[in-house]
Every structure is written in C-alpha cells, then in structure tokens.
Amino acid sequence: MKKVICVIMLSGILASSGISQTKSTSGLNQSKGINMNKKEIVGTFLGAVAKQDAETMRKFANVDYIQHNPFVPTGLEPFIQLLPVLKEHGTYAENVRMFEDGNYVFMHNIWKNAKPFGADEMVAFDIIRIDENGKVAEHWDAMTVLVKETASGRTQTDGPTKVEDLDKTDANKALAVALIEDVLMGKNPNKITEYISAEQYDQHNPQIKDGLSGIVEAVQYLTSQNNMFKYTKIHKVLGEGNFLLTVSEGEWSGKSQVFYDLFRMKAGKIVEHWDVIQEIPTEGLANNNGMFGF
User: Beta strand 61-67 with 136-145: parallel, antiparallel or unpaired?
Assistant: First the structure.
C-alpha cells in the first residue's frame, strides 16, 4: 500500500498544472529533431503524465528511467503501469517554481487532494535529469505536509519566482555551500551574519520566524530539546541565478533525513529560504537507488 501511495504522490507532482506546455505533446524531443530546451522537455513529459499519454511519455523518457523516490519502482514501464492510480484519487500538483541548471530541471510544487498519503495538501521539491539525447532520464524528490499556520505568517511556497542575476549563479552556489558547512555542519557557526542578510530574511520553514533573530530563537529551542538539525553531507547543489537548491543528508529527531533547501540571494547575501525535510526510509522500498546518487 505504501508503494501505491507514493506513486500517487509522484504522479501528482508530474501532473503539475502550472507547468506550461510550449510544444505539442505529439512532437518528438531533441534527439528526433525538435529544438526544445530542457524546461520544455520536462513540461511536455509532465503534461503527458497528467493525461496518462503513455505514447508521448515513451518518446520523451528513457526506458531505463531511474527513480529515486524510494517507494516507486524504477524504469519507465512500471511507472506507466501505475499511473491510473492518479486518476482514481484525483491527486494533482501545481508548479510554483521551475529552474534549470545544466542537465537538471528542479521544481517547487504543491500537491492537492493528497489524502491517500496523509494530508489534503503537501509541498515537494523535484529534480529531473535530462540526458545528452534530450530524454528524461532520472528523478529525485522530497515531500512534506503543507502547514496552514506558520511561525512567520508566510506559506511554504509563496514569495518571488523570477530568476535574476544569471551571471552570479556560481558565486551564489558557493555562498549556499559555505552557509551549510559553517552553520549547519557546525564548522564556524559564528559566520552566519556573513551569509544571511541582517536587513531581510524571509523564512518559509513553518516552525521558524523571519530574520536572523528567528533562526537564533529556533536554534536555541531545538538545542534545549537536544534535537538540533544535523547536516552531515551535501549531495547536490543546483542553481539558476539568484535561486539555489541544496540537497543534503543528515539527522533530526534521531532519524536519517534528506534536507532540500532553496535559497534566494540578493547582493551576496541570503534573503529568503524554503525547505522540505523528509525521513529517509529503510523499509518497504520499491527500488535500491537511494534518495541521492547524483
């Protein structure tokens, strides 16, 4: 049952109604002569998933499509065979943000009608890799329950979506890595003011207030409960201009976790943060690919 539930979740994400389809789903991908960028390839594939259009899915994705959602079988055909669950439960997702970095497209999504897996609405980050032939080749994700009342008054997904400062992508990646290594891994936590803006820091983690003071308050509370987040390894850093996504591994509440952190940068400082934290399962797995493996 858990496997079926997570197929619903993945299907909902892939059926994102907010992703525009700029090319006909009857068209072919780059390897067949159509000039499509990676966001358009992903959008076309996801549109086909929404319609359960298996023919188009086969045109735009590899047969050996690699799956890192731990409860969904790897391979394209097993995925196609499970798509009717989407229609049965009416589960779908709305895309909030979509970015591109090299061969990767990464997205911020809201799931709707998500009761089959425990909540009416959920929030997710998804990453899709496009191979050298312009085919959808690999998928990673993490998900959490959408919270209506948050410490900051912000939602887990609202805020800017426009990409700026494309020439600063590499510098912003370095800033995100430095924050995680120094502050969240504890190498030099006193350097936090070098990374996070003291003038503006909009927080979308539902349990933390805005600003540097909100971070300090949250750290003090979690430390007092002997339950502070522990980041141990950064597995991937993806960015487009002023938006950076890091995928990290660590511990929280005595369990192994995957941490997806999306940062917005401005003038060399972090001014906004969204995240998804998900426990890494060890039982009932549908594949052996793990939640990382970038």
Answer: parallel
- Residue 220 near residue 226, CB atoms below 8 Å: no
Q: DSSP string covering 193-245, please?
A: HHHB-SS--EE-STTS-SHHHHHHHHHHHHHHTT---EEEEEEEEEEETTEEE
Task: Give the Å distances, CA to CA, from 3 to 6, 75, 206, 236.
Answer: 5, 15, 28, 26
How much is the pLDDT for 129? 98
Res 120: pLDDT: 83
Q: Which residues of 227-241 are buried (b: 16+ CB within 10 A; e: fewer)?
A: ebbebeebbbbbbbb
Write the pLDDT tens digit of every residue in 155-194.
999 999 999 999 999 999 999 999 999 999 999 999 999 9
Dig out the tokens for 166 from the structure. Answer: 């494309």
Find the helix or strand (DSSP H, E) in which 101 lies.
strand 92-101
Instruction: Spell 104-128 as b/e; 16+ CB within 10 A means b.
Output: bbbbbbbbbebebbeeebbbbbbbb
284 φψ region: left (φ > 0), alpha (ψ -120 to 50), beta (else): left
**Closest residue by Cα to residue 201 from 190, 189, 214, 191:** 214
pTM for the predicted model, two decimal places = 0.89
The residues that bridge with 66 in the sheet, in sequence order, are 138
CA distances from 219 to 89, 190, 271, 292 (A): 39, 13, 18, 27
Tens-digit pLDDT profile for residues 66-82: 999 998 899 999 999 98
Please name each of the domains of the chain with its CATH number. 2-145 (3.10.450.50), 166-279 (3.10.450.50)
